[in-house]
Amino acid sequence: MDSNINIKAQGKIDAVKNIGDLISAAIGAAFMVSFLLVFVMLVWGGVQWITSGGDKENTQKAKDRITSALVGLAIIGGAWALMKIVGAFFGVDIFSNFKLPSAAL
Fold first, then answer.
1. Nearest to 72 by CA among 99, 45, 101, 100
2. Do 79 and 44 meet the contact criterion of CB atoms below 8 Å apart?
3. What are the extents of the domains in the chain?
4. Which residue among 28, 34, 52, 82 is least crowded, i.e. fewest CB within 10 A of its CB?
5. Which range has highest mean pLDDT (17-21, 53-57, 95-99)?
6. What pLDDT, on the 0 to 100 scale, is given for residue 88?
7. pTM score, whole prediction
8. Is the Cβ–Cβ distance between 52 and 58 less than 8 Å?
9. For residues 61 and 48, is the Cβ–Cβ distance under 8 A?
């Protein structure tokens, strides 16, 4: 009786060849999610401001939300720049496998 079981992988299961690629992909995904959240917060603040109807309290909440989103964008941009500087200093390209999604077919 043969007790060996052979399983063949299908798809792109071998796309990640080392831990560095996995970390790079995770960092890229984190940046994409954070930029998406900043966009959502900016839109939410804009809609909140438009629908405030001149109420000072609601207008101030909308301004605070927009300000927080812009501060978050500055922090994300600073983190990206710092990672590029550290990567250049140590000779490691953290975003080597980072590709922006596109609609091109």
1. 45
2. no
3. 19-90
4. 82
5. 53-57
6. 83
7. 0.67
8. yes
9. yes
Cβ neighbours for 95, distance < 8 A, ≥ 6 positions apart: 24, 27, 28, 83, 84, 87
Q: 21 versus 31: which is more confidently predicted? A: 31
19-50 and 56-90 helices cross at what angle (nearest 10)?
A: 160
Chain position carrying tokens 């927080």: 68
Residue 27: is its pLDDT beyond 90? no
Burial 60-81 (b: 16+ CB within 10 A, else e): eebeebbeebeebbeebeeebe
CA distances from 63 to 49, 51, 58, 73 (A): 7, 13, 9, 15
Structural tokens at position 105: 């077919």
- Look up residue 51 and give its two tokens: 């629908």
Place of tokens 């980072």: 98
